[in-house]
Specification:
This protein has 358 residues and is mostly beta strands. Strands 1-2-3-6-7-8-9-10-11-12-13-14-15-16-17-18 form a 16-stranded antiparallel beta barrel. It is built from 2 helices and 18 strands. It has a single domain (62-88, 111-357), classed as Porin (Beta Barrel), CATH 2.40.160. The chain is globular and about 65 Å long.
């Protein structure tokens, strides 16, 4: 009997100890959960159908599948990491000549095609200045800094979208440090030092030179819906490495109307490019928007022999409708021409898109 009683007492003590430990552990877990830094999760998906483009087969495309994580490290320090799950890895191939044939000598993943988009820290110094460090969108062009979900047309202007020669001229990322903020209440500024001018995202710097890029915008107090300014960039070095960017922008935007125009000039080694566009968007209701844009793009100022280097023009008309606060459908018709060359690539393109943001 004494043995059984001692055993039962020992068991009771063991159960009580385990319950006490479990309660403390649970309390610690809940306390840790309450004290853990909060973070936010946002996303954006855009799917569209393309028809009539002589350069691309008709079909559906998952154009964007962004996932963004962000949060606070401290009252002044924030972090963000963004992925684009729609991206497909591209392999850069190097060939060499052996006897009378070509052979593959090297293959490497193009780091710019990785899913990682933004990965940066933001430190707020005061109301007029914040510092960003990491991979981020470079401050080049107005439309290039507008989120994809807010762009009035399904695709951005050609000098941003077309990347067959060198790199795009907006909506591009690189690794570096930038300062952003406002001065004198009317001057918005963004200036940074980056590894490259957008072609170095996800990689280490390929040379000793750094690129300096910046954008300055004036918001006049007498007409708060108007803004005008410019952006540019420079990277020195040998001729083939040299990069230059210069752009001007003008926009008027209110509840029912947006008028915007931009011009962009670029030099990449010996390659010189120039593009500009004018866009208007009318919103008769809070859910409906109609848009028209004229787009002119010369991807190579030194030649006019084919669609590879000739001037391209697009006239875009379309509309969009907000199904609710987070989803939208849009239809754009694009008339694409090459006015200075004879090419079968001129045509009329239909784009129909569905997108959602959360």
């Amino acid at each position: 009997m004494k043995f059984r009683r001692r055993a039962s007492i020992s068991g009771a003590l063991a159960v009580a100890a385990s319950l006490t430990f479990g309660a403390r552990a649970g309390a610690q877990d809940s306390t840790s959960a309450r004290n853990a830094p909060p973070f936010e999760l946002h996303g954006f998906i855009q799917v569209y159908y393309r028809d009539g483009d002589p350069t691309i087969k008709d079909g559906f495309r998952l154009r964007k599948a962004d996932i963004k994580f962000s949060g606070d490290v401290s009252p002044r320090l924030k972090w963000r990491v963004t992925f684009d799950a729609s991206k497909a890895l591209t392999i850069n191939k190097t060939t060499s000549e052996i006897s009378d044939s070509l052979a593959l000598s090297d293959a490497a993943i193009d780091q710019r095609t990785r899913m990682l988009q933004d990965a940066a820290l933001t430190y707020t110094v005061n109301r007029s200045l914040s510092l960003d460090a990491g991979q981020q969108i470079v401050p080049l062009s107005l439309e290039g800094t507008i989120p994809t979900s807010s762009v009035e047309t399904i695709e951005r202007t050609m000098f941003i979208v077309e990347r067959s020669r060198a790199t795009g001229l907006g909506d591009i990322r690189d690794i570096g440090v930038s300062a952003n903020g406002r001065a004198l209440t009317v001057v918005e500024y963004h200036v940074g030092v980056f590894n490259e001018t957008g072609e170095g995202a996800g990689t280490i710097d390929a040379n000793d030179q750094k690129s300096v890029m910046g954008r300055v915008v004036i918001h006049p107090t007498f007409l708060p819906n108007l803004q005008f300014g410019g952006s540019g960039g420079f990277e020195g070095g040998p001729t083939k490495q040299r990069r230059e960017r210069s752009a001007g922008e003008l926009q008027y935007r209110d509840t029912h109307l947006t008028l915007r125009t931009e011009a962009m000039s670029a030099r990449d080694g010996d390659l010189r490019r120039f593009g500009w566009y004018g866009m208007s968007a009318v919103r008769p209701t809070s859910r409906m928007q109609f848009v028209a844009r004229f787009d002119n793009w010369d991807r190579d100022l030194s030649g006019e022999n084919s669609s590879f280097n000739g001037v391209e023009r697009q006239i875009v008309v379309g509309g969009s409708y907000l199904l609710d606060a987070s989803s939208k459908i849009a239809v754009n018709v694009i008339r694409q021409t090459f006015p200075n060359i004879s090419t079968p690539r001129s045509g009329t393109i239909l784009l129909a898109a569905f997108q959602a943001i959360w």
